[in-house]
Structures
1.
Amino acid sequence: MNKTILLLILSPLLFIEANAKMVISNKVALGKALYSDESLSENRTMSCATCHHKKTAFVDIRESPINHMAAFSADGAFIGDRNVPTASYAAFIPKFHTKIDEDNDEILFVGGQFWDGRATDLKAQAKGPFLNPIEMQMPNEEAVIERIKENNAYIQAFQKFYGNDIFDDVNKSYDALADAIATFEKSK
């Protein structure tokens, strides 16, 4: 049999076998795997790492029609209304809060994730892009968790770190997904 044909036949089987044997040893490793997993977007082409690339200080380097001022969606059909902020310092950003500037008698808005501070912390931020119609475009939390459950290594890791019943409640599993990604982001 032609080696190319044999390779094409065996490649998916080798991937499935590697997936079955992959062991995720800690929450940081789980978060890193999730952060880089393109299968968690609607068309399986985008991950967190797509827009927050490690080699470029966790910013989006993809070409866009408006000189990196806004990011493309997973399907390339939409352009967001702003560019992706760096994830390099995200772990150091305080939770969103207000404080009084007594010198100027003003209320100041401090911290929060995203450019507009709409997520109070890393865990809340990690939940957003999966469901955003101009980012990873997944229809709902359940669809994201179903994608997680396609991967035996993820199932084992989620159960190890969050309990055997973690997949009994979609909200709890989605919260665990965000916790793992936030744990990874804090480790960078």
2.
Amino acid sequence: MGMAVVFRRLPVVLGTVAVAAALLVAAAVPASASPRSDSDSADSGSGPALRVPAGALRHSLSCHGDLAAAATGPVLLVPGTTLDPETNFDWNYEPALRARHQPYCTVALPGDAMSDIQVAAEYVVAALRTMHERADAPIQVVGFSQGGMVPRWALKYWPDTRELVRSVIGLDASNHGSLDADAVCALACAPALWQQRPDSRFLAALNAGAETYPGISYTQIYSYADEVVVPNVPPAASSELHTGGGDIANIAVQRVCPGHVAEHLIMGSTDAVGYALVVDALTHGGLASAHRINRAVCATPTMPGVDPATLPANEARYGAKVATVLATAPRATAEPPLRPYATTRDRDAD
């Protein structure tokens, strides 16, 4: 399959997202936001007690391979907004990691990652603790869009998790939000979209003080062609991180392949350049380098693990999931309130 064929599919995917966003904005009567559980689960380590029931946390985590046998630490895959792990990863990153004999887990975020991100972070905290207990090794986190950002909330407010993580690798991560969310939330929108507006209270708390922590490598991979996490071009690219004691690599795929065309959904699914940078990070302590990437990847239509025979069906499933969730997810007329633990001065000194 030639690169031109891949690019011809872009308008179809983009059209799906645009229609879905229009449906969401046009909704006149918002539904109530998904309820939060006030039940405390069994908790260990530092940080606030987890309010999500322990059974729900266990059920959200699915692991493949012997986590203790991972030479570079097991990988945690975190899906993006509107997505579940299967739709996001089972036709690309999961088969690619299995082919590399890389043990990994996926975590399902509540409400297809459309609910309160503060609740979603509890699922990530529990996943990190469980994986580290099984592997006895630091975890490498790979997340798409919101999935690249929500682990940072976990690291900020549950300090014990910083000892469990080797790296945070984001693909078009919404670290500083998106102007698109302002438009989508003009009338009402899902809680996670409220929280991904650039001026949200959630993002102000997340990015107060240091954005990274010592001992953790942060590789942020993004595309100038991202039309969902906007703006994602320097000098104010949303995905980029700049402060704190962590090692940071901010890399646009266009630095590897000038003129490369990869919009948001492709970055989170089939993009060969993004995947090459992810693998480079996984095999170099979590810190990727554009200089190490073989430029032959620029002519590669899709990443390893993607089956050309099933690609059209999987792309259709992927786009349909995004459209359906955007149109039907419960909506709220305001951003969820910050949890008490996040309303005090930032906890970077913890």
